[in-house]
Each structure stands twice: as structure tokens, then as C-alpha cells.
Amino acid sequence: MDLFVYLKASNIKEKSVCLNDGDCVDIADGVVYYNDRYNFARGILMGQLLISRAYLKLPKKPENYDYEIFDTSRWAINKTSLDFFSYTTTMIEEMFASGAVDISREVTAQVLSIGIGGGFINTYLHYNYPNMNITAVDVEPKTLEIAQKWFALELDQRHHVVIMDGIKFIEQAVNEGVVIMNVISLHGKIQESAKRVATCGQYPRPESLKEKYIEFAKYPPAAYYKDEFP
Length: 230
Hints:
Radius of gyration: 18 Å
Number of strands: 8
Number of helices: 6
CATH topology: Rossmann fold
InterPro entries: SAM-dependent_MTases_sf
Helix content: 10-25%
Oligomer: single chain
Largest sheet: 5 strands, antiparallel
Order of helices and strands: EEEEEHEHEHEHHH
């Protein structure tokens, strides 16, 4: 069972961040019960709807008792911890499982992400795959602000964000002669492997895919319990 639970009212870190379309979201830290234990996470919520989430690193135990250690807004985002209840992990897995990108930590790839959300997909790929060149496109500038302020999204020479409509970005790139290749083409033809893609949590993860990716990524299920600030 997967629960996102508020510890107390002050656990809402930023309230009513309003986007250009009039929707407003809250940034909140809470507790997730998973694998028979509690984990700390940060989420973007629209009312009771959880839009995006990332796990937090546990801070080092201070030498002297310090109440600031309980301020989760100071805790770092865990950039290696995957959330196996989230569509974000399925999308990361499918990029490799579909054959669109070779399964290798040293793979060289040009990745285009339409929409930022909390920025976790981009951040995870940027942190764990040092040869990927990632471009994210989002029509809403506030999402970039949220991702940078609360979800540790960093921009550099191989991680870029463009603020514009994603469809217009693709149309413009095609008109300029750029060939965009993905598991889903611009002409609506879907590769056989792409039929298993789960988008935005609408469909269950393909059977055994989680286990295959854990084996590839060498990802221990309890890794995020031991992570600390560097």
C-alpha cells in the first residue's frame, strides 16, 4: 500500500504556487509507507492529487543535538532512488526496455522530454547517465522554478530547459530538419515494444520489468535508507 501522509501542517513547504493556466499546487514533504517501512518524500500536490514525487535523503546525525535536522526542507533530493509506484520510473525503464536507448550507464543519447513536472526524470537521467544530453520543454515557467527550488534540478551543458509549447517545439525542430526518433513516431506509428509504455501512471508496469531494471541499474531496494548528505 502506498500512502503520502502529512506529518503536520508545517510540512507544506510552499502553498498555492499558481501556474499560468490558473491551477495551483502545493509543495509538501511527507511520509511514504513502502517495503514495510516509512520513507520521507517530497511531492507536488494539486488538492488531494499527487502530481509528482521524489524521495529525500536522510541527513547525517549531528554531533550536537540540533532541531534544524528535523526541517525536511533542508534535506537533499535522492537522485538515485526510484519510486516504483510512480509513472516516472516506468518511463525511465521503458526508455531502455523499448530499445530506444542502449542499456548502458555510459550510453550516449539525445533525450527530449516534453513536460518537466517535478523534474525527477531529467534529474535522475542527468545524475546517473553522464553521457546523456537532455532537453526538457515545458510551456509553464513556474514548473522550472519549482523543479530547481524543491527538486534539485540543475542545468548545465548537457541538461537544458526550453520554455515553450512542446508541440510547437517539435514542429519547429522538424521544420528545421531535425529528425526526432522515439518509440512513438510523429506519424502515430508505434513500435511493438512501445505498446507496453505506461504513461502518467494510467497503466500497470509490464510484468517483471521492475526486476529487470533493478538488475541492470544495480539498484538495492533499501538504498535510500542509507543515503546521507555528501
